[in-house]
Each structure stands twice: as C-alpha cells, then as structure tokens.
Amino acid sequence: MVEWEGPLSEAYERxxxxxxxxxxxxxxxxxxxxxxxxxxxxxxxxxxTDPREVVEHLAKGVDDGLLPSGSGRFFGFVFGGATPASLxxxxxxxxxxxxxxxxxxxxxxxxxxxxxxxxxxxLFGLPSTTSVGFVTGAQMANFTxxxxxxHEVLRRAGWDVERDGLIGxxxxxxxxxxxxxxxxxxxxRFLGLGTNSIVPIAVDEQGRMRADALAEALDADPGRxxxxxxxxxxxxxxxxxxxxxxxxxxxxxxxxxxxxxxxHRAWVHVDGAFGLWAAVSPGLRxxxxxxxxxxxxxxxxxxxxxVPYDSGIVLCAHPEPHRAAMSIRAAYLIQDEDGERDxxxxxxxxxxxxxxxxxxxxxxxxxxDGIAEIVDRCHAMARRFADxxxxxxxxxxxxxxxxxxxxxxxxxxxxxxxxxxxxxxxTCWMSGTTWQGKAAMRISVSNWTTDEADIDRSAAAVLxxxxxxxx
Length: 471
What we know:
Its cofactor is pyridoxal 5'-phosphate. By secondary structure, the chain is an alpha/beta fold.
C-alpha cells in the first residue's frame, strides 16, 4: 500500500509554517548559490529514500534561498501572491493530476475552465463571445494573441499561414509603442515575424502611445502590398496597445487606438498583464476605456487575482482565428464533437495541468467586489508609498495612476546603491530599472496582503538606506 500521509503531512506542516511566518520573514534570500548547492547537491542517488525524508530535506535545503515574493512587503516586478482559496485549489489540482488538454481527458477540468472563462470575460467587460485560453503567463498570452492576429491578417490577404508558413507570405507590420513590454518583441520572434517587423510609435512622458503618432504612421504608409494572387492589397497590420506600462503603470489611449487602427483594417492586441484588472474596479475602469473594442488581450491572474504560478490568460474577440492558430487534429485524439471545450484549441500546449482551477477558486472566493477591493487597495497603497517617499532627496518620476511607483535618488550611482542596499537590508524588496535613460527604483504594489503598516515600514527602510548612502 502506498504511504501518502508521511510526505503530505510533512509538506503541509512546512507550508503552513512558511505562510504563517511570511509577514515577518526577511524579504530576500539568505543564502548564496554556493551554499544552496552544498545543501541540495551531491552525487546522483543510487537507491530509494523515504518520501517524507525527501520532502524534509528539500524544504530545509531551499529555505534560505527563497525570495519571499508572497510577502506584503515584496514590491519587485509585479508578482502578487496567492490567496488561501487559490492556493488550496492549486494543491488539489496537483493531487487530481488531470491532463486538461481535452474534454475527454478530464470533463471536470474542461467545465471548470469553461465557467472560469465566462466569468473572466464578464469581469473585464469584453464581448460575450470572447474565447479564452489558460497559458503559463503573460509571455505566452501575448504569443497566443499575436498568433491569432497573424492568422487573421494573413487570411484577409489570402494566405494560410498554418498551412504554408511565412516563406512567400505578405509581410506583416506591427505598430507598437516605444515603451512596449519586451514580451511583445519576444513573441514576434517566436512567431517568425522578427523584431524588424515593429514600427515603434512615439510615446508621451509617461510612456503612453500617442494616438496622433499612430495615425500619422498609418496615414504616411497606408501599406499596399501584393497578395497571394498577385493583386494589390492592404498590408497585413497589427497594432499592439498597452494597458499598464511596466515602469509607470500608464495606459495607452485604447479607445482612440482601436478607432484609428480599425479604420486601417488592423488587428488590435492589448498587453494588459496587470493593467487589464483595472477594468474590475468601478473607480479605475476609465483607465481602460474602449478595451472591449480591441481584438485580443493578454493578462496574468498571478498578478492581481493573486493565484499561484502559472496563470496567464489570453482572450480573443474572434474565436475562429484563435482556434485556427492553436488547434490540432489527430486520429488518436478523442475530441469532442458536441460543443464541449477542448482547451488545446485555445493555447499552444498539448498536455498540461488544469491551471484554470485556482483561477476559478480565487474568483469564487473573492467575487467581483473582492477583486475590485484588492485592485483599489493596491492603488491606494502605491499612492501612499509615493507620498511617504516624496522628499527633497527623492523624485517620484511618474503619475501614480495604478500600482507602479518610479523613484530616483538624485543621480544614477546613488539610485543604484540605494536599490542594492534596500534589497540587502531585508525589510522590503524592489527592483531597479532604467527610465528615459536614467536609473530608477521601480516599486510594484500588487499583493493582496499589503497594508498601510507594510507601506510605512518599507518607506522608512528606503529613506534610512538613502540616508546611509548619503552619509
């Protein structure tokens, strides 16, 4: 008989200890790479080891190398944490061990994701027919959305990219803001379009794409090219907008962008990794005005829905090109013919875990109002952080419209030194960046547990490190 209780009990006890100590845990790793290798490495095991002992050894070995990104004082990147319901559902997802690629492989996983997809579409205020795919993160959400875009703009030009590839296809141009996220460029590389397909569009001082610059670029080069039949056609065009700049949190004017782009028969894809969640807040929804007019969207539930990794989400207003870009047929597969959801029609994976289950649990536990409260509170905490730091020695570089705070401490050298000292000090953790050619500290507030005490304690630590650097 298999002995489950020992290793699972060990894992539960250690998980609970970690979570209960998280609020006061040092926010940063406590071990070097060498120390971690010494704790975890050694020769390849030749024989079996008791499972409970394995779990104990692993937990002890990694503990000092963990970056406590679930802490309310972790402000690096836009990571978020994990709510109790989503974490528990993630454990069950692992226990059930369902292959969520096909309805036939797990009817339960398929239905959970179908229900969750409908809830997400309603939360974001998108067209009711929008298709949804659950992917690893925002990178693959952008990839999938742009794959659907690639299919459709080439189909209009008479080219079947899934059948014929890109050799000989009409060239696609991609217009994107100069301050776009790098996952857009990477997705275009994956898709075979290359970064030279990008036409960078000028942005304002907050990193927002200028709608007038987009219009000028499209009007200046209407983009006539030769179609598959040798006839002149509009050049296949994709416009990438951004809901939430990764440094400033600023939003492109999406309504204007959609109007301009659609007048030129372009597909509009919105990278809303964290910013799309502003749509759930009645007080912040104006930031995404016109979002429902786009053609595809990418976001990440690990960010503001605070579910465990990995939880990317792609949404598409046009299910047909979405399925055409992703779906596969094989004689040995049992694919449903009665309208049930086969998730491999909507994401680039084949076999995968049922990652929609934690998203379902988070939405069920929080409801629309609870999700909005997290977004609103993080916004308020970001503004509080900016107010606490704003002194004669600290420059806040951005308008705090959402959850991002961008600060600078006089010059590049001082700024970088403060960032390093704060990370080493351990009260809180935030990352550095370069904004408009200058070094800056980038503070991202996206954890559901972050409160005023976390902000005040962290701001005091930043100012203390600044004083020490200046001293």
